[in-house]
Design a protein that fits this description.
Blueprint lengths: L2 H14 L12 H11 L4 H11 L6 H16 L5 H19 L7 H5 L6 H12 L8 H10 L7 H11 L2 H17 L27
């Protein structure tokens, strides 16, 4: 895909949604971190349902630790991998208190030293909480980038590198959420909604699906 097509794709997605943001519900950097930790292999809808009950009870490292692993599990048991996630949340809270005065650090290495926090999670937190021009690659971003031929790669790291190389700086803060929302509601995994796609004429996918 050439530079002009890429730019036009980004312009159309932005014109359709000038202020894209995560659909995770949060009211602090800490809540965002916990919500993103929970969102791995889970939908935002399921995470929001769980955190709407969890956060009123525990929304700081101290109150989360007081709740304990079993207490956290009781709120997130409908979410995939809830046993491991509950353990990681408590360990993360302990480290936040020990190393960062209970605050979420604005530092990639520090974030990725926390249990359960990998590249994607750190990218999301740095982007949304601190306004870094990072591009987190989740399943939606990976699919949209590859399917449209905007950026082709076999793994998330390759896609991230190509997106950072090809997305103009003015779009880098919003690119992650623009692609997620497009993948979640239009360029879905099975039978993409090409008939209603804003970028159908720019997309280079060779198996487009049109409703009859």
């Amino acid at each position: 895909m050439n530079k002009i097509k890429r730019y036009n794709i980004l312009c159309r997605l932005r014109d359709n949604n000038a202020h894209p943001t995560t659909e995770l519900v949060y009211y602090s950097h800490f809540e965002l971190l916990i919500a993103v930790l929970l969102s791995a292999q889970a939908t935002d809808v399921s995470v929001n349902k769980a955190t709407s009950q969890l956060f009123p009870i525990a929304n700081t490292p101290q109150t989360m630790i007081a709740l304990g692993v079993e207490g956290v599990k009781s709120y997130i048991k409908a979410i995939g991998l809830f046993n491991r996630k509950a353990e990681n949340i408590i360990k993360t809270c302990q480290l936040l208190l020990e190393r960062y005065q209970g605050e979420v650090p604005e530092d990639r290495a520090a974030l990725e030293s926390l249990p359960g926090v990998g590249r994607k999670t750190s990218n999301v937190v740095l982007n949304i909480a601190f306004g870094w021009p990072t591009i987190a690659v989740d399943t939606h971003v990976f699919r949209v980038a590859n399917r449209t031929r905007f950026a082709v790669g076999k793994d998330a790291k390759a896609i991230e590198q190509k997106l950072l190389a090809n997305v103009p700086k003015s779009f880098q803060i919003d690119c992650h959420n623009l692609f997620i929302l497009h993948g979640r509601y239009t360029c879905i995994a099975h039978k993409p909604r090409c008939s209603y796609c804003l970028i159908e004429d720019l997309c280079e996918y060779n198996q487009k699906y049109y409703l009859k």
